[in-house]
Every structure is written in C-alpha cells, then in structure tokens.
Write a structure and sequence with these properties.
This protein is mainly α. It contains 10 helices and no strands. It starts with 15 loop residues before the first helix and ends with a helix. The N terminus is likely disordered.
C-alpha cells in the first residue's frame, strides 16, 4: 500500500517574534496599569477606589496585573494572527469540495483540469496537491522505473511538500500552550500575595484595618479572575487551531492516498 503524507511533528519552540510581541505587550500592560487603571480619576481623594470603578479594582490587583495583562494581550494577538494564517492556508472555498473535484478529475485522468483546480483554490493544501500532481505527470512519462518505485516517488514528493507547508501553520501555537499553563500559575502567585496581605491585616494588633483587609482580598480575586480567564482563552484558541490544522493535514493524507492509488491503478 502506498504511503500517505506524514503528519509533521509539532515544534515546541517560541520564535523571536513571539518574544518581541510578549515584550511589547508587557510594556503596554505596565503603562495601562500605571496611567489608565492607576489614574487619579478612579480613586477618591483619600486614595480609595471609587465604588463600581472596575479600572480601580484592576489596579488593586498589584504588580502581578501588568504581567497577566501582557499574557492576555499576547493571546489575543496570536489568536488573530493564527486565524488569518490558517484561513489563508485553506485557500479559496471549501477544502472538502476542492478534494472531491481533484478526485473526480483524477478518476477521469484529466490532469489539466486538476491542476487548474489547484490554481483556483490556492493555499497550503492546494500547493501540496499541485506538487503531487506534477510528480504524477512526471512519473507517467518515466519508462525505466517500476510501478512501485513510481508510487513511492509520488508519495515522497507529497510528504516533502507537506513538510514545507504545514509547519508554518503550527508556528506560534507553543506560545498559546505556554500561556495556558503559566497563566493560572501567575494568577495563583498574585492570589497568594493578596491573601498574605489580607491575613497580615487580620494579624495586626488591635482592630484589623478594613481597608488593608479589603485591599488584600481584592488583589487576590483580581489576579485570579484575569489569570484564569486568560488561561481559558489560550486553551480554547489552541484547541481550535490544532483542530483546524489537523483537518487540513487529514485532507492532505486523504488526497495523497488517492493520488498514489489512482496512479498505481492506472499502471496495471
């Protein structure tokens, strides 16, 4: 049986662009924390948060908040970046419809029509199919190699084309996976610091300071909310994109198998 296109191994590296984006977002998070959330307009003359002012509540989260904001912004940046990249890789129109058309043209041995479909579809899947079809035509003209060798050459061509196209789709996904893991941990750190502050107020001699107690609890809850929300979004987006990439890969596997089997059948 002919081999199908191998599914590329997912990389676990974070690119230089990813580091730059996270650094820029950290600066934005710090500026937002100091100048927007920390604006005097969000606090009373005594320096207490104005009731119902959410920006003041965010500022009460402490120095962990800018880090969590940077993680949140990074998640959103790479959500839109990956969405555009993967959507472009799918090409024009439905992948399923494109694959059905390619199968139809192959069954009729109409290579010209199949190649025109690739030109119309564009995208990563069409590029892989285009490479396989050109190798198909090349092997048809080959007289010296055996059928088994020809089928193997077509399969290898599809695998090589896949190896060139698919890794670009998985780029930056490790950033989402990392944020999904560390977002909750950083939030937990902020929560612990806030609770330490709250218990310190309770342990003070005499009557506990209600303001210090509430500030500690606010710090704990704000960090928890932002961190858990960020991690949840990162997990959701990561799963969405890996599902979309898997769908493209399975489509390539399917059409790769069809191309090699059609060639083998035509050589009998």
């Amino acid at each position: 049986m002919a081999q199908t296109a191998a599914k590329p191994t997912k990389k676990t590296t974070i690119t230089g662009l990813g580091i730059i984006v996270m650094g820029v977002n950290l600066v934005i998070g710090i500026l937002f924390y100091i100048f927007v959330a920390g604006s005097d307009a969000n606090f009373t003359a005594e320096g207490k948060p104005i009731p119902g002012n959410y920006l003041a509540l965010i500022h009460e989260g402490g120095f962990i908040v800018p880090i969590l904001l940077a993680l949140f912004l990074t998640v959103m940046v790479f959500f839109f970046e990956r969405l555009m990249t993967i959507s472009k890789a799918k090409g024009n129109g439905s992948i399923e419809s494109f694959l059905q058309k390619i199968k139809f043209h192959l069954s009729n041995q109409d290579m010209t029509a199949a190649l025109k479909e690739c030109d119309r579809q564009k995208g990563s899947v069409a590029n892989v199919v285009n490479a396989g079809l050109h190798k198909y035509a090349e092997m048809k003209a080959e007289k010296e190699a055996t059928t088994e060798q020809k089928v193997l050459n077509i399969s290898k061509e599809i695998e090589e084309a896949t190896a060139l196209e698919m890794p670009a789709l998985e780029k930056h996904l490790p950033i989402l996976a990392t944020i999904a893991s560390i977002g909750t941990l950083i939030a937990l750190l902020g929560t612990v610091l806030g609770m330490i502050r709250a218990f310190a107020a309770l342990a003070a001699e005499g009557t506990p300071d209600p303001s210090a107690l509430s500030a500690g609890i606010s710090e704990a809850l704000i960090n928890t909310a932002i961190g858990i929300g960020t991690s949840a979004l990162a997990i959701i987006f990561y799963n969405i994109f890996t599902g979309m990439i898997d769908k493209l890969t399975y489509g390539i596997d399917e059409i790769g198998f069809t191309i090699t089997q059609t060639f083998a059948a035509s050589e009998k």
